[in-house]
Amino acid sequence: MQWYVVVMILCVVGGTLFDVWHKKSAKYFFDNWREAEKNATQPSASLASLAVQTAASEVLTSSEFCNPKRRIAHLLTMYGFVAYVVATIVMVFGYPTSTLDTPVIWPFLWTLGALLVCVGGYWFWFFIRVDVAAEGNSPFRLVRADLFIVSLLASVTFALIWAYLQSTGSPLVGIFLGLYLIATTVLFGSVPWSKFSHMFFKPAAALEKRVAEANGTRSNLPKPADRTDPAVRDSHSMELLKDAPLDMGLGIKREDPRHY
Description:
Elements: H1 2-23, H2 25-38, H3 47-59, H4 68-94, H5 105-128, H6 130-133, H7 147-168, H8 173-189, H9 198-214, H10 230-234, H11 239-242
Helix pairs in contact: 2-9, 3-9, 4-5, 5-7, 7-8
């Protein structure tokens, strides 16, 4: 089992590096970074400070999600997955035999993490996904983009069933252990074809965006209009909008997109 975990870690590292090379995302990232530094129009905070802000906002609290339900589901899945993986590694490498007493905290965190992934993942899968909630497609419709979430949910679901069957002495333990290992192998072995590496790219992209905003380049996007400036307000082509409030309300966000 220790060798299996090592191989899965190597699959994640190798798959992510292949994904970076194949999609040329690292080249794109560093080219944009150099361009932003060259075109900077104002001094910005230190990179360390911006990195801390990114970690505290976009990474740890997923502040970029404007939909509170999706944000909660994402946080449940993310923290559950972290607890599940960490507890697995600790138990496999720290307490590999039945002669060693595993502290109860690690099986507890393993189970809790798997349950959190199930709650957040199934909530997202059946009720929050755009193609299900907004487009009316069946939640059982599968496409390649679903590979990560489906293999993740299969892994933790089979893991919980396997753990429960062990406590009952069921003869089905071996079958569900096999299903658990197959689903986990697909999860960690399919990195180049799934959204797994997204968890590594997302913080880098969030940091780049924060740096671009801090140094004034704004990723070559135009500066938002300052409607408190009379010259900007009077330049508007529609008379009705010249004196309109800055906050125009929820607009299309006033109700959920369920008009399919």
